[in-house]
Amino acid sequence: MSTNAISSPPARVATVAELRDLITAHGNVSPEYATKMFHPVPDLPTVKDRAGYLVAKATGRIVLDVGCVGQISANIKAVAKAYYGIDKANGNGWATVDVDHAPHEMPVYPDVDLIIASELLEHLANPGYFLAMLRDKYPGIPVYITVPCACGYQVRNDCEVVNKDHVAWYSYTTLNTLLTRYGYAIQEARWYNGQPHKAEGLIALVK
Question: Which of 11-20, 42-51, 84-93, 172-181 has the weakest average pLDDT?
């Protein structure tokens, strides 16, 4: 059913339950469909500096950095106790793997105690395959995932503001749904760079 069938709710409806009851009572959608359309968003703290946050979390850890090209990765490597990188680009000192099409080829480093996959999922045509393989190869290892937030989407003068290499936007709900389907649970989450619900992105610690 198209979401166009959902009437705009009154501005003062207070709860998710009331929103669901309202559209059901108006006969627009079934109760089952209404449960799919409105979801609470946790009151998450905000991080101004995604890079600094990840570097701090990586300090003294044995890190696997998936998508390891860039200055943030260099900064993480500088503070990690030990560092392993994976990227599809050829380079010096990391494993060359296309985690979109062949995540089963990711190597296993048995001493890893923290995984970082920063600004990666939005590039993947099949993020579920990557997540399934990551969980299979590194069961129980905590993962910091960051993604651009769908609520930060912008259009300026008919110009869409988006990286042309991205194939998806994630909200808290869609990210949580994807992770849950592949056996992960969000342990904590934060907005980064911007106001809550309108920030540039999300940081999630999952396990």
Answer: 11-20
**pLDDT computed for residue 39 by the predictor:** 84
Q: From the centroid of its chain, how far is CA 18?
A: 28
Beta bridge partners of 205: 144, 188
Domains recognised in the chain with CATH numbers = 3-34 (no CATH), 46-206 (3.40.50.150)
The structure tokens listed for 167 are: 């194939």
C-beta neighbour count of 171 within 10 angstroms: 16
Closest to 83 in 3D by CA, of 50, 61, 56, 104: 61
User: pTM of this prediction?
Assistant: 0.88
Percent of the chain at pLDDT > 90 equals 68
Residues in the chain: 207
| Residue bearing tokens 């110009």 | 159
